[in-house]
């Protein structure tokens, strides 16, 4: 038996998800026509889906369990999330419900959904961007590599000659390069990493070339190599940090949403008694 092609599997998954949402819409309208409590049906369907999503999230973070391929569970999590968004659209009268508690719950759901779709985008793009940068660094080891680069930059001028050109390079290092090597990347860079710092520093080194001699030019070239290496390291740090931050934010928001949804369901049940 031939394996199902990726695109065929994706189309089939989308079709099944849309059919499931259509069934919810049909049942909800049927209950409304019969003067039933359609909101209870959609609400508890949504709560059950949120419970499933929580379990799927736990499973994805426990890959050692012999419960099948993690990528398969990730796909189930994705399409369950799309189904939950469809049920939410059927359940609420407006995108953001009225009432203080219901409004907060709606905003939480939208935040969780938005962070989920961002996670989907990041999981598709970040790995490719990481492999496009030379070197592979574990997130926990990046501060150590950062310190090693800073130490290597400091050693370049140790024992250097006293020529005037070397003094010019030394002044540039102390004023411009040392603060770059000695500091961590800014929050703005981590959120939106760009090549502006790299181009500015390399351009500064290039402008010094006319003042340098053979030995100092060689040292400047080594500085330029360290700038590129440090910038690549910061770029990897920024991408990995954003992924880790997304996991934390998405998990916390999901827990808050699930807890709020249980309280909302309990209150709704109490009013029917």
Structure explained in plain terms:
It contains nine helices and no strands. It has helices at about 5-35, 40-60, 70-90, 100-130, 140-155, 165-180, 185-190, 195-205, 215-270. The model has no long low-confidence stretch (mean pLDDT about 85).
- Cα(first) to Cα(last) distance is 54 Å
Range of strand content: under 5%
Structural class label: mainly alpha
Number of helices: 9
The shape is elongated
Gyration radius, rounded: 27 Å
- Give the ordered list of helices and strands: HHHHHHHHH
Tell me about the largest β-sheet: none
User: What are the segments in which pLDDT stays under 50 over at least 5 consecutive residues?
Assistant: none
Counted beta strands = 0
Q: On the 0-100 scale, what is the average pLDDT?
A: 85
Kindly state the percentage of residues in helix: over 70%
Keywords for this structure?
273 residues, mainly alpha
Describe the SSE topology:
Blueprint: H1 6-33, H2 38-60, H3 70-91, H4 100-131, H5 142-155, H6 164-182, H7 187-191, H8 196-207, H9 214-272
Helix pairs in contact: 1-2, 1-3, 2-3, 2-9, 4-9, 5-9, 6-9, 8-9
Give a short summary of the structure.
The protein has helices at 6-33, 38-60, 70-91, 100-131, 142-155, 164-182, 187-191, 196-207, 214-272. With 273 residues, the protein is mainly alpha-helical.
